[in-house]
Design brief:
about 0% strand; mainly alpha; two-stranded antiparallel ribbon
Length: about 325
């Protein structure tokens, strides 16, 4: 190697004794201090205060409703509410145990109908990228998210109630499943799409078929996100009233009689009980409506918290 080349390389290498340049050289720290005399600082404080006030104003209706439910409904809470049947108009006491059972049964039946169909449709949408059929299904699912709930009840009334000749828990479950389906489809698609492509490629590289990859890799990995969507759909279905007015109607009796559960009869629900009792001219029924509203809100809150807990592992990934 020539001496000129060695000397040029030595010039490029900084000497060990050279002082390290100060990255804050030329920065005036006095200009960075918070001062109300500067317009940008004053504007920042004003806008931050405005956003904070608007946030508290937006929370006032929510906390007002919760406080009213706790104050009016909490006074009536007792064990009898969960074990007794709705009272007659002039009768005191009573409860809505049959409405709680009816709500859980109809939402459970709707979940049994919707979850397998919605999850499979979500897997198809996530895997069939570029397919014209997938685009049509995705568009239809997004349209169904804004579908009026009363129309789902009218559809179930014409398809099930008129066909079977009576109101029933099955008809109510079918109406609720229509409202649950788009939420489960879209959340399942998002959860499956978030699975890293390397995991699918590794499964296929080991000789697994497409069905085995979906069943043993995609679904277990995307399960937290899928369960989140299921819980959100269940929470929505539990609070619906209009579809059940056309399909399940209401009943003052238990769904089970003589040790046998009959799903093909009118079924009570918390939402319809609140609708019926809130307009009654009797104080006892109105108080039961407040208590039922509090119980329904607590049920929806529990479902949402469960869904949020399922979503935490998905966020951490």
């Amino acid at each position: 190697m020539s001496k000129d080349r060695i000397s040029s390389k030595q010039e490029l290498i900084p000497a060990q004794n050279d002082p390290v340049p100060n990255p804050f050289e030329g920065v005036d720290f006095a200009e960075l201090e918070l001062s109300l005399y500067r317009p940008r600082t004053l504007i920042t404080i004003i806008l931050s205060s405005l956003v904070t006030c608007m946030t508290f104003l937006a929370l006032i209706p929510l906390f007002a409703v919760l406080w009213m439910l706790i104050w009016r409904g909490g006074q009536k809470l007792s064990l009898a509410l969960f074990t007794q049947l709705p009272p007659a108009p002039l009768e005191q006491g009573g409860g809505f145990g049959n409405a709680i059972v009816g709500t859980l049964i109809m939402v459970g039946l709707a979940a049994l109908i919707t979850v397998p169909l919605g999850v499979l449709a979500g897997v198809y949408l996530a895997e069939a990228k570029g397919s014209q059929l997938a685009e049509v299904v995705r568009f239809a699912a997004k349209v169904l998210t804004g579908f009026p709930s009363i129309l789902a009840g009218v559809f179930a009334y014409g398809a099930v109630v008129l066909a079977t000749g009576g109101y029933s828990a099955i008809a109510g479950a079918i109406a609720l499943s229509i409202l649950m389906l788009p939420t489960i489809i879209l959340t399942s698609e998002s959860a499956v799409a978030m699975v890293p492509a390397k995991m699918k490629e590794a499964s296929i590289g080991l000789g697994a078929t497409g069905a085995q990859t979906v069943w043993m890799v995609l679904l277990p990995t995307a399960m937290p996100g899928i369960l989140t969507g299921v819980m959100l759909a269940v929470a929505r279905a539990a609070g619906e009233t209009a579809p059940l007015l056309f399909t399940a109607l209401f009943s003052n009796y238990w769904l089970a009689s003589s040790g046998r559960v009959d799903f093909m009869q009118p079924t009570a629900s918390l939402a319809v009980l609140i609708y019926n009792f809130s307009g009654m001219p009797f104080a006892n029924q109105v108080e039961l409506a407040w208590a039922a509203a509090l119980v329904l809100v607590l049920l929806v809150l529990i479902f949402n918290l469960i869904g949020q807990s399922f979503s935490q592992p998905q966020i951490q990934q």
